[in-house]
Amino acid sequence: MSSPIGGLLSAPALSARRAITDADAWEVRLAALATLGQYDGLTFVAIDSADVPPRYNLIEDPASEPAIRAAVDQAAQSATTVQLRISVPLADGRIASVALVTPLASTEALGGALIALRVGRPFAAVDAYTAVGIAEIVSLELARSLTARREATERRQAFALYELARHALFGDDLDETLQSIAMLLASTLEHEAVHIWLRRPDRSLSRHAAYPADRLPFETPRENEHDALWGALRERRLVRLSAANAPWVPSNTGEVLVAPLRSDPRPLGILVLARAGAPYGYDDVEMADVLGTFIGRVVAAWARRPTESSRSGDAPEPAHELETEEELAERS
Fold first, then answer.
1. What whole-number distance in Å separates Cα of residue 284 and Cα of residue 269?
2. Are strands 255-263 and 239-242 parallel, antiparallel or unpaired?
3. Has residue 164 been placed in a domain?
4. For the stretch 145-182, what's the b/e string if a residue is b when 16 or more beta carbons lie within 10 angstroms of its beta carbon?
5. Residue 5 lies in a domain
6. 110 three-state secondary structure
7. Would you call 233 helix, strand, or coil by DSSP?
8. Farthest CA pair distance, the chain
9. Contact 259, 195 (CB under 8 A)
10. 31, 37, 233, 236: which is deepest, by most CB within 10 A?
11. Which residues pair with 58 in a beta bridge?
């Protein structure tokens, strides 16, 4: 029979916690780091990041407090640890009375601060050294997560460009090809809405592809009726705006990118991308610009294709009705 003392001296059995998402993984990390530093609450602020920071034993983001936000800015600028008195409610019902703000180890695309909180007892000098080590661990994990996310984004973008090329090469109908492209962009690049509008000779835009098509209000906007269309078509630049200023997209979206379909010497239309969740980042904007150029060249190449009538010797018919600004001026 085993000794009853043996069970007390053996290592405790720990239940395995599965981290399915990155947020779950951060919850486990912060709980372990809070135990290591003897913190009652723990979070961090990543500068130039739109993501909601993970938190341990905190109801709301403490960085929203003006005093803590000022301490975060001071710690980032001076690269020193800052301690301040606060009154922040914790998830377990207690009130944190002191906070320790330590700058994260800055990397090429990352900066910020670690925010540790305690109830009823201040931080000592040794706690500052511990916080620096914990901030380094958080910085390494943030850099790893950022690298993994960037690699995943690059893989999705490469796959989207490959599929776009395949649809452009083997498509039999322009509208069907553009619709396949719209659905592809929505599914692979996480857009809630994708529209492709081609320009008509009367300076209006005709919708040739949309996802989702069933929720799109039918409209044929003219470029001089909306500043975003004017900027995208006349100035041939990408425009970024909110859905409230874009009545030609579904109302449930948040941010909108309008990219011109470039094909020298004339703009052929616009590509509209809309997202309801997280705002667009730099990579999304850069990719939208590339997609506008790619789709513009697809439309231009399709317009130059010989039709069935031209191959049979009859008078040729244009594959798509497009006119330059000079052609419009001559007609008027």
1. 20
2. antiparallel
3. no
4. bbeeeeeebeeebeebeebbeebbeebeebeebbbbbb
5. no
6. strand
7. helix
8. 104
9. no
10. 233
11. 90
195 and 294 share one domain: yes
Asked if residue 195 lies in contact with residue 232, where contact means CB atoms within 8 angstroms, the answer is: no
Identify whether the C-beta of residue 192 lies closer than 8 Å to the C-beta of residue 274.
yes
Domain that holds residue 307: 171-327
CATH of the domain at 210: 3.30.450.40
115 phi/psi in degrees, rounded to 5: -120, 110
Tokens representing 21 are 């998402």
Tens digit of pLDDT per residue, the chain (332 long)? Answer: 455 544 444 555 545 556 566 777 888 889 999 999 999 999 998 876 656 788 999 988 888 888 888 888 888 788 889 999 999 999 999 999 999 999 987 655 567 889 999 998 999 989 999 999 999 898 888 888 878 777 877 788 788 778 878 877 777 788 888 888 888 888 888 888 888 888 887 777 888 888 887 654 555 666 666 777 777 887 788 888 876 667 767 667 778 888 999 876 677 888 988 888 777 888 888 888 889 888 888 888 877 766 544 444 443 333 344 444 444 344 43
- Supply the pLDDT for residue 268: 85
Rounded to whole angstroms, how far apart are CA atoms 103 and 136? 9
Q: How far apart, in whole angstroms, are the C-alpha atoms of residue 214 and residue 260? A: 24
Number of residues assigned to the chain? 332
State the Cα angle at 141 between 140 and 143, rounded to 5°: 65
Shortest CA distance to 279 belongs to which of 109, 60, 112, 49? Answer: 49
- The helix/strand/coil state of 286 is helix
d(CA 22, CA 77): 29
CB-based contact 267:247 (threshold 8 Å): no
102 and 233 inside one domain? no
Task: Please tell me whether residues 184 and 308 are part of one structural domain.
Answer: yes
